[in-house]
Amino acid sequence: MSKSRSQLNKSIKFSLSIAVITFVLAAVFSVISSSLLSGVSWTIGFIILLVIVLIGVFFDSIGIASTAANETPFHAMAAEKVFGAKQAVRIIRNADRFSSFCNDVIGDISGIISGTASAIIIIQFANVLGHSEGSVGQIALNVILTSIVAAITVGGKALGKFLGIHYSTSIIIFVGKVIAFYESKFNLKAIKKKRQD
Asked: Structural domain boundaries of the chain?
């Protein structure tokens, strides 16, 4: 009973920390994307929008890979002192939290910001075409752009899930190397070890 209570407390603590991190990151990314989009043409804005969507797809793929990957090959790599292998093991041992961060925090923030970015681009593009606010032209643009963004997001995430499942080892060792580089440069632990590590 006490063990399940301890796990519940840890889960609540993690959920609250993720909520705070999401709030901060969403605010930061919203300010950055809004400031970038306000001073550019709708074409550059559309490219920025695509980048935001692709970031969400990329992190979704990484999150899936962390839950699909097998720990065994990374132990062999760690024994051979492959750069990033130890970090890859830590990713897999923390797959629940790591995938939550990648899929829920970054993925969902990207989705929310892409919606805001779409609204800004629609207004800019409607002004270029001379459509007034609430006109049939602007509504049509809204439907078309929203549908395009939704199709790219869903199609991209479907492809990302396929890659995450079937190429999980390659993806996680790549992420492990990125984290290892970050840790060596800044002398920080990006992912904490669990007790069994």
From this structure: 2-186
Q: In degrees to the nearest 10, what's the CA dihedral of 32, 54, 60, 13?
A: 0
Per-residue model confidence (pLDDT) at position 196: 46
pLDDT along the chain (197 residues), means of 10: 70 82 84 78 85 91 94 93 94 91 87 83 77 74 86 91 95 95 82 56
Q: Which two tokens stand for residue 100?
A: 């939550």
Amino acid symbol at 57: V
Q: Model pTM?
A: 0.79
- pLDDT at position 192: 66
Secondary structure of 4-72 as H, E, C letters: HHHHHHHHHHHHHHHHHHHHHHHHHHHHHHHHHHHCCCHHHHHHHHHHHHHHHHHHHHHHHHHHHCCCH
Spell out the residues 6+ positions from residue 102 whose beta carbon is closer than 8 angstroms to its own: 59, 60, 62, 63, 66
Classify the C-alpha dihedral 10-17-98-84 as positive or negative. Answer: negative
Take residue 38 and report the two structure tokens written for it. Answer: 């306000």
Amino acid at 69: A
What pLDDT was estimated at residue 159? 94
Contact 14, 97 (CB under 8 A): yes
End-to-end CA distance of the chain: give it in Å, rounded.
25
